[in-house]
Amino acid sequence: MVVASPSPIKSEKRQSSIELPIIDLSMERSEVSRQIVKACEDYGFFKLINHGVPHDIIDTLEEESFKFFGKSVAEKLKAGPASPFGYGCKNIGFNGDVGEVEYLLFHTNPLSISQNSELISNDPSKFSNAVKGYIEAVRGVGCEILDLIAEGMWVPDTSVFSRLIRDVDNDSILRLNHYPALPLTLKERDTSPSSTLHPHQLSQRIGFGEHFDPQILTILRSNDVAGLQISLKDGLWVPVIPDPTSLCVNVGDVLQAMTNGRFVSVRHRVMANSCKPRLSMAYFAAPPLHACITPQPELFTPHVPSLYRSFSWADYKKATYSLRLGETRLDLFRKLGN
Ligand SMILES: C=C1C[C@]23C[C@@]1(O)CC[C@H]2[C@@]12CC[C@H](O)[C@@](C)(C(=O)O1)[C@H]2[C@@H]3C(=O)O
Ligand SMILES: O=C(O)CCC(=O)C(=O)O
Ligand SMILES: [Fe+2]
């Protein structure tokens, strides 16, 4: 359902809110897999309910995250810079991208979480257990989704996708993003009749600039504060309604390549215009560095032959990190003439 609302941004096409396809993981298995495949083909994004990640695991990580982001700047900087793991503030990646976001980035390897937690928390084992507990639960959901995808696409080897993130050497990442509340003074100026600022200028505060997620799958949980937007085919940016009880799942570039373009990795961004802080936890499910990414032959058709050349996740990651946030990278791996 797409709900129309007046446009706050003049230079862009009219905005509206979008209710993503809602998939109930407790439904009958073949129906869940059919719906997931359809959502990944049509939208590249869906909302997962009854996902089974225990509330206490989510709540503990949320509390620990707010505790960290509530510390003084000097304290937080001790856990930085994000190179790429650790604490980052406003700077995203290494190529000059900035946004109104501060974050913690972790490799999901348990040893590296324990080591990083020493610099993050006064109670490192509490913090690292919260992060590890969440990762374990959400990785389980990721594996389940990937198995359901293989089943729904009639790929005979139903572990072909999930195997990549079950591998001990998987290169998955957890990102905790904190978008501070818009300072009240700015909010007041925004609505004040005497304001000299164009009322829409402040609505343009970018939290995390537009981009595609490079990995296989992203599983995102946010608090009840809006901000995430996805770009539809016609260039329209639509806000996703936040729902802390569900998980927002999106297709990454690697899954688009492995499904031979049947699934779409969709451009998205985060605006930071709220008077409440947004906190999101993004799990990026990635293969091991040496894994060979190649389109599944079962998904070739006479009309759509193999679209992408084989590449390793290390190759793709290298290309990703050498480019600006908003850049399209998957096209570099497309076969010529396709
Ligand atoms: C500017 C950058 C940050 C990023 C690496 C990159 O060079 C381009 C992709 C960015 C992104 C987007 C999705 C994830 O948040 C992320 C961790 C990833 O894998 O690719 C970030 C990278 C990052 O912040 O390090
Ligand atoms: O913080 C969010 O809601 C989404 C962030 C995001 O897209 C990312 O970290 O890749
Ligand atoms: Fe993203």
UniProtKB/TrEMBL annotation:
Ranges where the Fe2OG dioxygenase domain occurs: 169-287
Database matches in InterPro entries: DIOX_N, IPNS-like_FE2OG_OXY, IPNS-like_sf, Iron_ascorbate_oxido_reductase, Oxoglu/Fe-dep_dioxygenase_dom
Enzyme class (EC, first level): oxidoreductase
Keywords: Dioxygenase, Iron, Metal-binding, Oxidoreductase
Domain of life: Eukaryota
EC number per UniProt: 1.14.11.13
GO biological process: gibberellin metabolic process
Catalytic activity: gibberellin A1 + 2-oxoglutarate + O2 = gibberellin A8 + succinate + CO2
PROSITE patterns, per the entry: FE2OG_OXY (PS51471)
Annotated GO MF terms: gibberellin 2-beta-dioxygenase activity; metal ion binding
Family: Belongs to the iron/ascorbate-dependent oxidoreductase family. GA2OX subfamily.
Protein's UniProt name: gibberellin 2beta-dioxygenase
Organism annotation: Dillenia turbinata
The organism's taxonomic lineage, starting at the top: Eukaryota, Viridiplantae, Streptophyta, Embryophyta, Tracheophyta
